[in-house]
Each structure stands twice: as structure tokens, then as C-alpha cells.
Amino acid sequence: MKFNTYHWWGSPLDDPILERARAALASESPDVEAFSKLLRSGHTAAVGTALDHYAHAESTSRFTGGNPYSDYAAEVLEVSREILSNPPSPKSETGAEKDGADHASALVVMLNLARPEDSDLIASALRQATTTSVEVAATMAASKVLSESSVLNQNLVDALCDIIFDESKSTDERLDALRAFNDAMSPQAAEVAARALATDDIDLQMHAALILATHHLSNYREAVEQVVASWPKDAPYPAEFVLDALHADDDPDQEQGSGES
Known about the structure:
Oligomer: single chain
Mean pLDDT: 92
Radius of gyration: 21 Å
Shape: elongated
């Protein structure tokens, strides 16, 4: 299946060599040479297009036998870091449909390549985000680094909390930021989830309860149970998973015992 780009539809490259490389990259077969030309071009839209192709190839690698551009992973990461070290580019300069498309492309790559040392860059991008695509990609990249950090970067935690606890934000935006802590095992993540559990938003409460019930129940069981008791009986996902976690903790041998004859 052909893939063109996530963020650079219609962006002019103003260079026939780069235009041919873009067309080659969007063909049915991967073109490593075309990818390299775009990645190393120094042209914002061309580089962004290459990053989008890397991210797409990585996301579909389980179905295609691997990412054909994986040999460029280190270079892709460094290019993405360089982009995020600068302010997001306005669409008037890049020809993209939205402001900050360069940050969006860099962050989509970071979903797989980011490391804990990239936390400050991701936090900065999150604070500068003016579009949903950038903010969502930043929260997902944040999830990657938080899951790999034994001690969470406080700057990144604060940037996420600025969204989670901003009542002027939509519930979806706040949930996206809270989900960044899904796989973080640090006590700092539990503290954020506990704060979210105490909000008046039931959707935030449910997801915070899920985080606590999954990874931190021994320290937060009473708080989770108190909030769960206030939910309606037909509370939607993820309420049932929180209840399952509480019941499993009540009877840790239940699953093992169910398999005995």
C-alpha cells in the first residue's frame, strides 16, 4: 500500500531532484536512496517527509518484515533532535497545512526512537504545541521515555501535568497527557495518577484508577476503592478493568486455582 506523508501533503519542494525522490519514496517499493536524499537535504518539507516515511515503515514493520530504513535510525534520531531543539516552523514558511509540522514529524519518529535523555526536548515541544497532531505525538513520545525511566524527568512530568490539570482543556487532551504515564513504574507516576483520581472528571478518574490498579495498587488501594464506589454501575471502559484488578488483588490465587481440576 502506498504511503505519501502524514504532515506534508502539497508542500512544495522547489527542487526537481527532491520532487523525484519524494515520488520514488511514495511508490510501492521502498527506495532507500530516495529516503537518504530527502533526509539529508536540509529542506524542511523534504526532511519531514523522510521522517514520516521512517515512522510509517516502523509502524507497519511487523507486517512487512522490517523497516527498510532501519540502518538510518541513529541519523533519523539526531535529525529529529535537531528539529525539536528549535521552535516549530509556521506553515507560512514550510508550505505545510498546519503550523509545527516539522515538530509533528520529529515527534512521530520519537514514538519509537526517543530515549530518556530526550525528555527535555519532548517537554519543550509539548509546551510549544499549537495543534492536536503535535500535542498527541508529544504525549505518545513522552510515554516512551517515561516507561524507560526509573526516575522521571520533572520537566516532562510538569509539562504533562499542565495539560492534565488544566480544566480549560478538553477531556481528550487531558486523557492523552495522562496516558503518558500508563507504563511508568516510578512513584512519581503514581503521584500524578493519584492527583488525577481526585479530580471531578470521571473519565480522568477512571484512567487514573487504571494506572494505579495496574502498577501501584499496594499503595493506593483504599483511594481507588473509594472513587470506584462513587461510579455508576454502568460506568464505561476502563471501569471494568479497574474492578478486575481489585478483585484479582483480593484473591491472587484465583487465576491459578481456576485451572486446577
